[in-house]
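Structure ticket #2291
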Amino acid sequence: MLELWFPELNQSNLYIASIFSTFLLGGTFLLATLVYFFQAIKQRWIGPNPLVLESENEDPVEK
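Resolution: structure written out below.
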């Protein structure tokens, strides 16, 4: 859209880098969202990790 208003931006390195970084940032956000939702679904179906729960519930050994 910007190249319609500013045709000289079409070949600049800053314009190319901004387009690349926009897609990279969007892809990173999409990946983080997918990982978050898959972890939530897994925890709902399987339940929490029992090893983590056992280590949290143990009392520290006093010496």
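Closing remark: The chain has a mean pLDDT of 77.
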